[in-house]
Amino acid sequence: MVRLRAVPRRGQNRGRLSAAAVISDRRLEREAAKRRQERRSQGIAAASTIIVLGGLAAWILSSPGWPEVRELFFNWEVFKEAFPEVLDGFWLDVKLFVLVEIAVLILGLAIALIRTSRGAALFPLRLLAAVWVDLFRGIPTILLVYLVGFGVPALRLSGLPTDPVVLGGIALGLSYSAYVAEVYRAGIRSVHRGQRDAALAVGLTETQTMRHVILPQAIRRVVPPLLNDFVALQKDVALVSILGPLEAFRLAQIFQGETFNYTPLIAAALLYLAVTVPLARLVDRMGGAPGEVR
Amino acid sequence: MAAPVLELRGVTKAFGERQVLRGIDLTVTEHEAIALIGASGSGKSTLLRCIDLLEEIDDGDVLLDGEVITDPSVDPVAVRRRLGLVFQAYNLFPHLTALQNVVLGEMRAHGVSRAEAEESGRALLARFGLAGREDDRPDNLSGGQQQRVAIARAFSGRPRALLLDEVTSALDPELVGEVLAAVRDLKGEGLTMVIATHEMSFAREVADEVAFLHEGRIVEAGPPAKVLGEPERPETRRFLSRLLEAGRI
Ligand SMILES: Nc1ncnc2c1ncn2[C@@H]1O[C@H](COP(=O)(O)OP(=O)(O)O)[C@@H](O)[C@H]1O
Ligand SMILES: [Mg+2]
User: Fold this and answer.
1) What is the bridge-based pairing of β-strands B4-15 and B59-64?
2) Any idea what the CATH number is for the domain that residue B203 is in?
3) Per-residue pLDDT band at A247 (split at 50, 70, 90)
4) What is the pLDDT of residues B86-95, one digit of tens each?
């Protein structure tokens, strides 16, 4: 939106002074036209939004099944009862999300550094890192949750965790560390090779070059894709419910079983949205195209 | 005669099938500036990169202060700390300010304290006409300013020899002078230099010797007046007349 600064008028001299001192009539005209155009396109956008959303709402509300759907999914009484309990469970999701995210950021970076390392001595580690990424990125996360969550306790080895929350967190960590490692690696590879040359030329070691020159540039570039993976992980935390811990989705399911009403699931969905939408807006702000909704 | 700082003996280098250096012999004595001239693609950059151990040579030796540095047992990091290299495309660190670019090597490679490194870094930037630009990032600086920061960065470790790779080739014509002034300044203090360049008048002015690189060999070398004024070899003559036609002399 263009806003004009108030320009002091100079009486009869207007238009004769240099263009820098006074805004010419021609320019004022052009800017007024631009504002009119802008107002018109905003009006069109608003009108089309109202028509589309209103039409959609009318279509759904007039559907033959709507009264039942409203009763089953949007029951205020059930919502009021379910929400506090689901919210209680949601803190577990948030905690798990934060812990797994931190672990994944560190582990992913370590894997990326190993994969981009050069020395011959690190070859076995490089191979291991490559296998790790292929394996855990290639298996659906839900399957990993099953395999780790039910497989590890079945081994009945002492010393291994048996808490389903921990096991679920490990499964998510395996899956997401593979994704995040590839994001870091792409960032590292995107830094121009002249940067490495210059760092070595001033006498830095390979490690110092990575630490002081390559990584700072790489990480800046991968913040948006990393945030994207944050959003995905925040949602996938619900997969841990398979193993039984009383997190938001699981509690909503239990509630739903008791009341034969789906409103608790809506309550859970709203809670996930409360975290993922701000995260998604942050992603847009950091890398989105202009003109999109921010 | 002064002791040689740099000595190349029969240096060869190939990239795959492509033989770029076919046996380079070159001696750079203390305080001497050698201008390396030759057509684009003749191997000037490769030669400088081989000296700074950014490329591994195939055969021959490079000696720094009499010590063979191209031996596999030599730590390349220690060697690079004794040399400076300025790149054609500046290669400044874009996430660091001008001053941080200059002090990074000092602090991390030479173990100088931050305070000390910043003090000498500021003095160096001021010397190259960059006082007041210490906290600017490279993308806020003109090409000429960036290249002067790069020269300050390469010189900050007080190298035994400074290698300059066509430091004005990426610049708009009106910015060439300020960068050449910085090089002239360093020559004035007696710094040993190898200068790959297309600026023949500058080579004539600042170099003690000009070496003409052609098809992987130095086919002619000698005082600037001789090599640039009365070249003996037909290859040199052809190269110089092509530059003349292009208005580069
Ligand atoms: N890393 C590399 N890999 C393959 N070929 C290269 C590489 N670097 C340089 N070359 C080739 O070596 C030759 C000499 O290049 P260069 O040293 O850059 O010449 P100059 O600096 O004189 O223009 C060119 O043919 C170039 O394509
Ligand atoms: Mg070159």
Assistant:
1) antiparallel
2) 3.40.50.300
3) confident
4) 999 999 999 9
CA of A101 to nearest chain B CA: how many angstroms apart?
Answer: 26
CA–CA min distance B84, chain A (Å) = 7
Residues from A in contact with B at Cβ < 8 Å: 194-195, 197-205, 208, 212-213, 216-217, 220
Position A98, amino acid: V
Residue B50 located in a structural domain: yes
| ipTM of the complex as predicted | 0.96
Ordered structural domains, chain A, with CATH: 94-243 (1.10.3720.10)
Task: Map A18-39 to HEC letters.
Answer: CCCCCCCHHHHHHHHHHHHHHH
Please name the helix (run of DSSP H) or strand (run of DSSP E) that holds residue B67, with its range, or none: strand B67-68
Cα–Cα distance measured from residue A284 to residue A185, given in angstroms and rounded to the nearest whole number:
22
Average of per-residue pLDDT across B24-47: 96
Q: What is the pLDDT of residues A38-55, one digit of tens each?
A: 999 999 999 999 999 999
Q: Which of residues 98-117 of B touch A (CB under 8 A)?
A: 104-105, 108-110
**What's the total number of domains in chain B?**
1
**B121, part of any domain:** no
pLDDT at residue A156, rounded to an integer: 83
Question: Rounded to the nearest whole angstrom, what is the distance from the C-alpha of residue B49 to the centroid of ligand 1?
Answer: 10
Q: Answer yes or no: is B219 within a domain.
A: yes
What is the domain range of residue B75? 4-93+161-245
Instruction: Give the chain A residue nearest B103 (alpha carbons).
Output: A202
Check pocket membership of B88 for ligand 1, CB cut-off 6 A: no
Residue of B nearest to A216 (CA): B95
- Residues B30 and B203: their CA atoms lie apart, in Å, by 18
